[in-house]
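Propose amino acids for all 1020 sites.
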């Protein structure tokens, strides 16, 4: 209405201006000229004198007007009534003038005038004003009065008299969790009854911010409350897909159209604009009080010192650290965050504050504590997502999803998961602490984007649980592939798809094409990251979830379901040695079992000896004992306190609970010292900024033992030294005492060994080795446990090996993978010359090596023009800046001068075994079948095979014969070893379909590497 009035006034003003601008003076008629007049004397009549009008003057008196009023708010402050007036003045010269008050019946009239200089030109700028007017009510009779300011009624009345003192009539709707119960459509066509109001909540915070839970998503925003007027502005939001039945989108859409609110008893009713309907909310209790903390027992504790990991040769160090609780906070976009105390495994840094978004990280988060933190704040989204991770872990659909994979923690989720590639269960080794989970290559996006090598970054993502079901294991590592298109390659096609409304079809086609790539087409190789995740070990972690607790039988869910009245009379305990024990009412039974690893899988029981007492009427002894031979599968439900044993053929389940209440937590480690004391450590290498990595000859001449009592015994070549040490966390300080004083050989490093130990300030463990960092960047000492120093794998030779540039890391940009690494190679020759392939050019030069340092001088070069994406110039510049070199895990590293970064090289030589796989039965492979081919070192009959190379392929409907190619590094092949192929075909759920049942030797002893035909046999 206000807009309409303004338009009408503006139109009237325009008409008036037009009328004035078009008016012209009318000329006075003049007589027609006649013949020249004859002058005749004329008598002059006597007339009264007249006054000549004076020139009109402009008044300097100010112009008095009426102030426009937008709002008037009455409050009672300091024992007096005050009306706050707000409005807008028409220009910069107009000011508030006199304010007067009068009483007309039960109306208090306040008149606010304006003044404006009459002789001043002013800019036409609307100027807001506000005035507080104390109402003169001292002599007024008691009663209720309406306040009008320039005809605008105030929001609240003035109530005079003791019995009419102002009461708190407005209901405070802030800091309450309002649960959406129903929607009443004015037209009665689209009424909604909300079945789960607790999933759709809104909380008005005191700082004008609003927190919204829309099913599985969280939304932040702001609100404006003015009397009964209410508007809600939606802000940043998570973008998870909550399912087809979810009301999340309708909920948010309606909140955006709220106009006013009223209270209906205990319910909050929000009225939509244009009388479109009413949203009715029930009071869900004060914010933050739902699920208030209660005392709980700590059942399991792990600390960073219990964690082990193998980075599988990736050029990056790792460090497990304790991270204190980050309290639940919903004040910052894009949504709530909060984590309980947890463990983070960092890569390349040692402090979580040093980690940048997108850098690799692995989380180990206690499930129960994580869910409890969010539930205590009225937010079930973590619990919902955790359930989704569990469901996907235990029942991975076939074909697997390509979007909307459930992922935690929310700190790593920057939008909707719109791409999920290579979805499968991750592999694990025998000692893995997390054998149940899934991995995929994915990303998180706010809107649609094509999948490209230079667009939204992709990550290898693992979501799983520790074997006891008590901790979430979450891993993120950036990956890329030179086989991916660039933005320039696909932008036109993608934009056409968007315009045609076929964005999802475009992405689905991309996903299908990219899924056909081999895992080795990625950098890092996805198989390497699978192995990294599978190598996670946690000291004391069971191999299978059921092992350990004394489980009590609580209910049977079958055709004839029942609850067990005395669960404590029926217990089950699995020991790690493969035996189980039953308490069956008044009898005891023992037996053997076999069980898969992790939180779910198959189980077989073979009961043995049993007591045979008669337990009396009503006992379930017979049923309990006799069910175990038939039970086939198990699941440990989150957070590790419920066990489900499953009958075959959908025959139902038996449920057991851990009767010991409690949760799992993480704790600050006692420090790596707990893993160090009492062992003999040999000094195997030393590195410093000046000389780089230096191997210690004859490490057995330099040993130390840190004793539990704080004393240290040192063998410094031919001398023995004693002393003491103190440790606090990872900080160490060593003080030496008495020493023998024998004269050691000239090549002895005994004095340097003792001196370096006295400078040690930080200790840490990595890959089973002990490291001391010295004070003032003095270097790093590395120790191996006595007996293990000689067991290190042989490194490829530095000279004569073609090396390809695979990664570069620097302090600014972190780890960067080099696309198409084969374009950038070098060979250090025995004669001190270097041959370089810098993309499309060849460069010669010379190099010098001395005690871990290197210097490269470039010489003649071809001068071809390389492609625009070439890194040739950077490659050559980095080589000339190389100053330190060292080899580790089969890779070569160059450290550049002035902390310029680190180049990593891998051997460029590569062998390959190729062939086809077929079978002789009439059977078609499912579309999601996976072919896995490994080259294994099977030289030792009494030791596990060593995998030398692996490739796997999703067949995508292809049938036999299936071609394969498996790469391996010839540098690691030994002529006297035996290498064979291991071939498996599984379905999308990792069920084994075919396997080779004969030995297939390759590579050595005259065996082939090409055109190998493998015949596999069915497993069933």
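Proposal:
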């Amino acid at each position: 209405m206000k807009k309409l009035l303004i338009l009408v006034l503006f139109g009237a003003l325009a008409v008036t201006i037009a009328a004035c601008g078009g008016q012209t003076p009318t000329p006075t008629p003049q007589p027609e000229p006649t013949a020249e007049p004859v002058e005749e004397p004329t008598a002059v009549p006597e007339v009264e004198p007249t006054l000549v009008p004076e020139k009109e003057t402009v008044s300097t008196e100010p112009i008095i007007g009426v102030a426009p009023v937008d709002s008037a708010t009455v409050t009672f402050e300091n024992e007096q009534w005050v009306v706050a007036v707000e409005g807008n003045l028409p220009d910069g010269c107009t000011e508030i003038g006199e304010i007067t008050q009068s009483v007309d019946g039960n109306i208090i009239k306040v008149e606010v005038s304006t003044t404006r200089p009459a002789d001043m030109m002013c800019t036409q700028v609307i100027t807001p004003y506000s005035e507080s007017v104390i109402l003169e009510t001292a002599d007024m009779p008691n009663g209720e009065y309406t306040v009008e300011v320039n005809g605008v009624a105030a929001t609240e009345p003035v109530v005079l008299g003791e019995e009419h003192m102002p009461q708190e009539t407005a209901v405070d709707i802030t800091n309450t969790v309002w649960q959406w119960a129903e929607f009443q459509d004015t037209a009665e066509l689209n009424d909604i009854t909300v079945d789960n109001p607790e999933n759709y909540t809104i909380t008005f915070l005191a700082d004008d911010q609003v927190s919204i839970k829309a099913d599985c998503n969280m939304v932040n925003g702001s609100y404006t409350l003015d009397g009964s007027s209410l508007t809600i502005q939606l802000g940043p939001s998570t973008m998870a897909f909550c399912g087809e039945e979810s009301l999340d989108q309708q909920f948010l859409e309606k909140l955006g159209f709220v106009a006013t609110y009223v209270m209906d008893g205990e319910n909050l009713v929000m009225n939509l604009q244009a009388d479109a309907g009413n949203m009715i909310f029930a009071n869900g209790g004060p914010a933050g009080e739902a699920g208030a903390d209660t005392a709980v027992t700590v059942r399991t504790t792990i600390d960073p010192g219990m964690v082990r990991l193998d980075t599988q040769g990736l050029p990056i160090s790792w460090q497990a650290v304790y991270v204190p609780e980050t309290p639940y906070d919903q004040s910052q976009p894009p949504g709530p965050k909060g984590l309980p105390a947890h463990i983070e495994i960092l890569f390349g840094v040692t402090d979580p504050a040093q980690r940048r978004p997108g850098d690799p990280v692995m989380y180990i988060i206690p499930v129960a504590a994580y869910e409890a933190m969010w539930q205590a704040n009225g937010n079930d989204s973590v619990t919902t997502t955790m359930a989704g991770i569990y469901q996907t872990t235990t029942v991975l659909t076939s074909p697997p999803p390509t979007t909307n994979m459930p992922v935690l923690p929310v700190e790593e989720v920057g939008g909707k998961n719109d791409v999920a590639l290579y979805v499968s269960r991750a592999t694990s080794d025998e000692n893995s602490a997390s054998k149940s989970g899934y991995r995929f290559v994915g990303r998180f996006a706010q809107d649609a984007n094509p999948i490209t090598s230079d667009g939204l970054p992709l990550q290898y993502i693992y979501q799983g649980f520790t074997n006891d079901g008590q901790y979430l294991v979450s891993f993120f590592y950036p990956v890329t592939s030179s086989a991916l298109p660039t933005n320039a390659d696909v932008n036109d096609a993608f934009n056409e798809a968007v315009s045609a409304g076929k964005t999802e079809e475009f992405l689905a086609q991309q996903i299908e094409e990219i899924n056909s790539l081999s895992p080795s087409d990625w950098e890092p190789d996805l198989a390497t990251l699978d192995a990294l995740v599978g190598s996670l070990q946690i000291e004391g972690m069971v191999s299978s979830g059921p092992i350990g607790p004394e489980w009590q039988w609580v209910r049977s869910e079958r055709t004839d379901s029942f609850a067990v009245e005395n669960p404590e009379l029926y217990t089950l305990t699995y020991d790690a040695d493969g035996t189980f024990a039953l308490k069956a009412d008044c009898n005891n039974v023992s037996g053997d079992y076999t069980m898969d690893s992790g939180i779910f899988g198959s189980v077989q029981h073979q009961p043995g000896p049993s007591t045979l007492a008669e337990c009396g009427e009503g006992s379930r002894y017979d049923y309990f004992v006799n069910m175990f031979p038939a039970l086939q599968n198990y699941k440990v439900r989150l957070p590790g306190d419920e066990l489900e044993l499953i009958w075959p053929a959908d025959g139902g389940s038996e449920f057991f609970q851990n009767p010991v209440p409690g949760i799992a937590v993480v704790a600050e480690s006692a420090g790596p010292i707990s893993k160090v004391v009492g062992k003999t450590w040999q000094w195997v290498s030393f590195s410093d900024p000046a000389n780089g990595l230096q191997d210690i000859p004859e490490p057995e001449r330099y040993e130390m033992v840190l004793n539990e009592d704080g004393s240290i015994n040192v063998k410094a070549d031919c001398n023995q030294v004693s002393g003491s040490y103190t440790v606090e966390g990872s900080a160490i300080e060593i003080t030496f005492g008495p020493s023998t004083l024998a004269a050691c050989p000239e090549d002895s490093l005994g004095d340097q060994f003792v001196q370096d130990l006295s400078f040690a300030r930080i200790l840490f463990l990595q890959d089973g080795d002990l490291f001391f960092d010295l004070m003032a960047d003095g270097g790093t000492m590395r120790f191996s446990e006595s007996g293990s120093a000689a067991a290190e794998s042989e490194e490829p030779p530095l000279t004569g090996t073609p090396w390809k540039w695979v990664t570069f890391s620097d302090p600014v940009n972190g780890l960067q993978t080099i696309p198409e690494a084969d374009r950038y190679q070098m060979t250090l020759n025995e004669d001190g010359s270097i041959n370089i392939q810098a993309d499309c050019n060849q460069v010669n030069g010379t190099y010098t090596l001395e005690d871990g340092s290197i210097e490269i001088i470039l010489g003649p070069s071809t001068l071809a023009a390389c492609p625009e994406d070439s890194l040739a110039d950077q490659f050559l510049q980095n080589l000339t800046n190389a100053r330190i070199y060292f080899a580790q895990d089969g890779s070569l590293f160059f450290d550049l001068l002035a902390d310029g970064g680190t180049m990593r090289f891998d051997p460029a030589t590569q062998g390959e075994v190729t062939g086809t796989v077929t079978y002789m039965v009439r059977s078609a492979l499912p579309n999601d079948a996976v072919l896995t081919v490994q080259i294994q070192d099977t030289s030792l009959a009494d030791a596990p095979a060593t995998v030398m190379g692996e490739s796997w392929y999703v067949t995508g409907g292809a049938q036999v014969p299936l071609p394969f190619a498996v790469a391996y590094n010839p540098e690691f092949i030994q002529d006297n070893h035996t290498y064979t192929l291991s071939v498996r075909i599984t379905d999308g759920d990792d069920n084994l379909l075919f396997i080779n049942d004969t030995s297939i030797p390759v590579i050595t002893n005259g065996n082939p590497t090409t055109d190998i035909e493998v015949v596999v046999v069915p497993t069933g």
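The chain has a mean pLDDT of 84. The longest strand covers residues 600-610.
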